[in-house]
Structure formats: structure tokens, C-alpha cells
Amino acid sequence: MQLEGGSVLITGAGSGIGEALAIEASRRRMRVALMGRRAEAIGATLAKLIGGPHLALPGDVTVAHDRMSALDSISSHWGTLMVLVNNAGLVPAGPLAAVTDEDLKTAINTNLFAPMAMVRDALPLLERYRPGRIVNIGSVLGEIPYPLFAAYSATKGGLRAFSQSLRRELTPIGIGVTHAVLRATQTPAADALGPLRARFKMSFDSPGAVATRVWDAVERDADCVYPAGPERFFELVQRMAPRLVDRSIVRQLTRA
Prior knowledge:
single chain, alpha/beta, 52% helix
């Protein structure tokens, strides 16, 4: 896919991975629409972009009115949309026994419901451009579920299935789907993980490196992109010998 001159909507664009994806997209001469709940945050991201014209679209991806308002703005300014990046997400962590109903609903709404609803709502704009592409930002924890991340792993596992199903549904009409499987990335959300970072010996990528990897995959029309590390190997081991992975992860969990 030729990115230069194309348009992209990135959700969760106010910080972290979303901000890095937006900056890299502008470097590749795309027109970038930034969506996020905090107007000041997406305004700060907008100031870091080169080229243009770009759009700042404050809104909550879980709210139907906000999604449609953002898409209507893109339609009136650009007429079409080449790429949709579903990046907005939460990383809930901790024992499942301590999670409230509201916590579960918030995680599911943000990490799974919102990408599904956004794709549905954005399809008319994507169909006007074709060939277009949808990018769903997933996680290694959706491939290799971890304890203390049950809700997060479940939502990202669901996003993986959604991406696969959607690819099979939309390929005949010229819209591709890239499922970007990321490991832990050095963002404000990762900072909140505290001691879990050391307990599970998490490796962290920089947002800039992640953004480059994702956009390189989009340019190749790749169906999936995985981190450069051992995670892909462990995911394959999990399929063939899941108990080996179970024992390894439980040892990490119970480490003093």
C-alpha cells in the first residue's frame, strides 16, 4: 500500500503508541486525523506532526455520537478514509477477585466493543477509497494470556479473532486488515504496572520503534505483525505444548 497522500484515523492518539503512530504517519506524508478523549493531549500530538492538513477530533471511541462526529468531520474535510487504526485501549491489571463489574465493562467497551463499532461505522468512508486497510493494535497477552491480566488478555484475544474474521469478510471488497501484536511498550499505561514489570520480566519497546514496525507492515499489506523477540516462538509452543507454558508462567507468578 502506498501511504503518501492517504488519510488515516488513529484512535487513542493523545499519547504513547497512538502519538508515535501519528507522528510516523505524518513523516510518511499521510493526512492524519487524531481522536482521543483529552482535547489538550491530541492538540499536543497535532503540534508534533509535519505536513498536513491534519485533524484533531476530541471524542470517546465508546460513545456512538463521538464516533459519528469524528467520521462526519473526516467525510466533510477529506471525503474518504484510507486507513483506520484502532489503537485506543486500557491495560487493567491485578487479581480478578479485585476487579469490579464496572472495571470489566470499561475494559471490554474500550478494548473490544469500540474497535468493532468503529470499523462498522467507518466502513462507508473506507469503501469510498479502496483499497483501504484497518489496523487493530493487539497484544502478546492476547496470544499468550497471563495471570493478573485476565480481563486485558480476554479483550485482546477477542480482538485477534475479530481481526481474522473481519479480514475474511472484507478482503473481497478490497479492504485489508492488519493485526499488530505488540509486546509491552514504554508508555504511561506501562508505568502503572509497577512491580508486575519485574515479576514477569517484561521487555519494553519504545513507541517510536513500534510505530515504525506497524507502518512498515501496512505498507507491505501484511495481515499480521509480531515483535522482534521470543514471544512468537512461545506462542507456537503454547499451541503444541500448553502445559510447558503454563508451568513457566506460574513460576513467574509465584516468584518471591
